[in-house]
Amino acid sequence: MALIEVSGLTVDTRLKAIDLAVQPGEMLGLIGPNGAGKTTLLHCLAGIEPYQGDVQLHDAPLEKLSVQQRARQIGLLPQRCQSAWALSVRDIISLGRLPWGDESKTPVERVAHQTGVTQWLDQPVDKLSGGEQARVWLARVLAGEPQLLLADEPLASLDLYYQCRVLELLRHYAQRHHGVIVSLHDLAQAARYCDRLCLLHRGQVYAQGTPAEVLTVDNLRAVYQVEACVDLQAHPPIISVIG
Ligand SMILES: Nc1ncnc2c1ncn2[C@@H]1O[C@H](COP(=O)(O)OP(=O)(O)OP(=O)(O)O)[C@@H](O)[C@H]1O
């Protein structure tokens, strides 16, 4: 049974008849040019953007879930995160436990360790750098242990070490019988870490499948309007723009 199955998801002129599914244990990469609809799709799945069509989570309609059920099962790491208050790192991460109503320190400390923010647990989050804060917000989502984790461009402010570390973390998270949908602009990283890719173009699914099926020279030319050199057999995969 699919963890999540999306059929005919449509949002006014922004998304048109999107079909996709994520199996337990799978990490799906959402790729596509600026404005393709990646964020809009993630927001629909997170329940913060209305849509037409059908979304089933574990074979149950998403819209039938209570707010609490949905918060327990789906976690969203938005593209931009900011706290309106000067909360500590520990407080921010603990917010991820709210849907469960527990105050256990163990998950908070575990995810702080995984994301490399343990040393700042008692510091105000707004005193950290942009990339350090991004890892704190990722820790907040991980603390909630959602069945489906949605991450919108989680690499945007991370250095090279943490780009790999975070993608490894998300991949391991998916492999523990969860599901991850992650939007990425780095296609080589998407090829390296994602089980399958969904290439969006002007609000529609242009291609979907394994990285080798999706990241073809023809698809990249049609969607990104670039001539690319693609070597997915290399370790790590190489995708470079040559014209
Ligand atoms: N709140 C909104 N109301 C109406 N249109 C919107 C809204 N937010 C985004 N759009 C439009 O919807 C389209 C898809 O935007 P979206 O943010 O989903 O793209 P994206 O693929 O995530 O892009 P990027 O890679 O630049 O983050 C764009 O044309 C954008 O201008």
Automatic annotation (TrEMBL):
It comes from the Bacteria. Pfam families: ABC_tran. InterPro entries: AAA+_ATPase (IPR003593), ABC_transporter-like_ATP-bd (IPR003439), ABC_transporter-like_CS (IPR017871), P-loop_NTPase (IPR027417). CDD domains: ABC_Iron-Siderophores_B12_Hemin (cd03214). GO terms for molecular function: ATP binding; ATP hydrolysis activity. Residues 4-227 form the ABC transporter domain. SMART domains: AAA (SM00382). Keywords: ATP-binding, Nucleotide-binding, Translocase, Transport. Part of the ABC transporter complex HmuTUV involved in hemin import. Responsible for energy coupling to the transport system. This is ABC transporter ATP-binding protein. It comes from Nitrincola iocasae.
